[in-house]
Design brief:
By secondary structure, this protein is mostly helical. The protein has helices at residues 2-7, 11-22, 28-50.
Amino acid sequence: MIGLLEREGAFTEALELARRLARFGQSEDVAARLSEKAQALVAEAAAQGGSS
């Protein structure tokens, strides 16, 4: 499910699901990877917005 959300571009939803699963000892590495990816996307959007 996380992979499907990620492929569809729903990073926030994928990260939320991964964090929920991490509470049960699953997907900790996925949550960390998605968190980094989301931060990179935010930084990229901010850089593009600042250069307009």
